[in-house]
């Protein structure tokens, strides 16, 4: 078995955490910069595997592009390779081949891309066979499956002869990620107008301008440290997270607001944000439509603090690295809580009966999902916990366990051998 055993801190909780930079911002900057002919200057690119895979595949001459488990890399590169007329086979992990992409491939086909689904219609692997512009510059696209399809289309839009008008249908999930895309495009000189009331985004045909861009630290990664502070029994806990800004392009900066009622105060400094403890509230309702990647962190934190948490907007979690709703339902039971579906596919509630179970250490399964591992790690602020397959964190936050070892004891168990980090 591969696992880490995390043991509660024995000294005051004070630390400065450097954080990885945002893989979402990095992967957008890389695609846009590729469309400038790789002429810009990108600073502080993420060390996340999803970004390192993007860097490698953008320049690889190999006809097969294996994105592993990186959703943005799959969706953004498919649009980029399609519109630049590159013949590529796009594939990924078995789970990636279960994550839908048909909405994007249909849109790209109507722009003029020749794309074949090699196994199942609407899913990777894909064969890209070139591009011949159809003359179509108006598309309708669903907004309620994945915003990554919309971001992928927006980023290639300035290179199309007539630009693009995207009309969004249905509910819009993960909207801050679309806004992040638009802001980064503008930074590179694109002319983009979004009319959210009319649900329409207009991109003019205009080449990107090469420039320099510095990527911010990752607010999604910051969320685990908020949970560490919320769960710390030490009233004087203080953690500073470096490289975060109050005005961020990342919608996951909402974690500062979500965690206030869970007992964490955020104070922005010149270098980042300082987290300290404040009184917590007994109940909280949150709609995660705009920030789905925060749901696991907050669910585990609420389970441990005994907060009555109502969650909405988590439907998209079912098509991410794993079915995160099912994974949470299974693993929360191991720490004495339940995620109950109150209104089918709409509203969920954390029911906490921690006192009913013995406080023995639990072994958390991670289902090839980095966020399962990192969301459960802060439990170690209160009791020993074991996390299986800890290497999954490399997808977004490779130094997570090293950073965690600044606060709790981290013991690696590899096939019967123990190492201390
Ligand atoms: O565009 C992005 O960088 C992302 C968008 C979100 O996906 P969905 O739009 O599929 O919700 C998010 O969950 C993912 O981690 C990163
Ligand atoms: C869902 C995620 O990533 P992606 O969709 O890019 O694989 C994530 O990082 O939580």
Automatic annotation (TrEMBL):
Protein name in UniProt: 3-phosphoshikimate 1-carboxyvinyltransferase
Single GO BP term: aromatic amino acid family biosynthetic process
Domain Enolpyruvate transferase: 64-404
Molecular function via GO: 3-phosphoshikimate 1-carboxyvinyltransferase activity
The keyword ATP-binding belongs to this UniProt entry's keyword annotation: no
Family from the record: Belongs to the EPSP synthase family.
Keyword Transferase: yes
Lineage: Bacteria, Pseudomonadati, Bacteroidota, Cytophagia, Cytophagales
